[in-house]
Amino acid sequence: MPYLLVMEYCDGGSVEDKLRAHPKKITVPMRVDMCAQGSCGLEYLHSRECIHRDIATRNCLIDKGTVKLADFGMCRATNVYKIDLSKPLNVRWLAPEVTVVLESLTISH
């Protein structure tokens, strides 16, 4: 039986597109609000034991002033995320607390 996926259309485009198209029009309070809305979406996912794994402005869509998380292709239903230390990490996107844990692992060896 084929799967059916229903998706909502967000006519505001991505946060990334909006920031690139109108960098001066997006005020600091507007940016903070977008971040807060994205954080609320992440909090909801985590409460459902779901890890997105690809949070980026390109994956945050805007619809009528509301930021919505999108692109769940890398999403995992788990409450634990394991980092494979044998593979290179993109430090640019790591949360600061991850670097503290990595430093303690390096020092303890």
From TrEMBL:
What is the name of this protein? Protein kinase domain-containing protein
By its UniProt entry, which PROSITE patterns does this protein fall under?
Answer: PROTEIN_KINASE_DOM, PROTEIN_KINASE_TYR
Q: Which domain of life is it from?
A: Eukaryota
Q: Where is the Protein kinase domain?
A: 1-109
| Classification via Pfam families | PK_Tyr_Ser-Thr
Which Gene Ontology molecular-function terms are recorded? Answer: ATP binding; protein tyrosine kinase activity
Organism this protein belongs to: Nippostrongylus brasiliensis
Entry annotated with the keyword Cell division: no
Q: Which UniProt keywords apply?
A: ATP-binding, Nucleotide-binding
Q: Which InterPro entries match?
A: Kinase-like_dom_sf, Non-receptor_tyrosine_kinases, Prot_kinase_dom, Ser-Thr/Tyr_kinase_cat_dom, Tyr_kinase_AS, Tyr_kinase_cat_dom
